[in-house]
Design goal:
About 60% of the residues lie in helices and about 0% in strands. About 10% of the residues are buried. Helix 1 packs across helix 3 and helix 2 crosses helix 3. The protein is mainly alpha-helical. It has one domain.
């Protein structure tokens, strides 16, 4: 019986192909997650437009530093005093939207 010898080039070719396949799968997963986030942002902005834009023109205020996610929760919860009626899920959607829009400008919590 003849012993088969597997060349190093076959093994390396296999691993290179596997690496490219894995990379492609990661890129596809990342694009899918970005698309899902975009859909979630659209839904959150529609909710923001319905519930918040009647009193607030914009979330952009260059004079104020960014807010942490906890700060946004406090701000959104304070709006209940002014008659804004939100469920907990709706409040979370708006907090996520506001935080993501201002991301990079936030302070460290503490």
């Amino acid at each position: 019986m003849k012993k088969r010898h597997v060349g190093w080039w076959r093994v390396s070719t296999f691993f290179i192909c596997a690496l490219f396949l894995l990379g492609g799968l990661c890129i596809m997963a990342n694009q899918s997650m970005a698309k899902n986030k975009s859909v979630a942002h659209k839904a959150a902005f529609a909710l923001y437009a319905k519930k918040c834009l009647g009193c607030h023109d914009s979330v952009a205020d260059p004079e104020k530093p960014g807010r942490t996610r906890d700060d946004w929760h406090l701000v959104v919860n304070v709006m209940h005093k002014y008659g804004m009626d939100l469920t907990a899920d709706e409040a979370d959607m708006i907090v996520d939207l506001l935080y993501d829009l201002r991301q990079g400008m936030e302070r460290e919590a503490g």
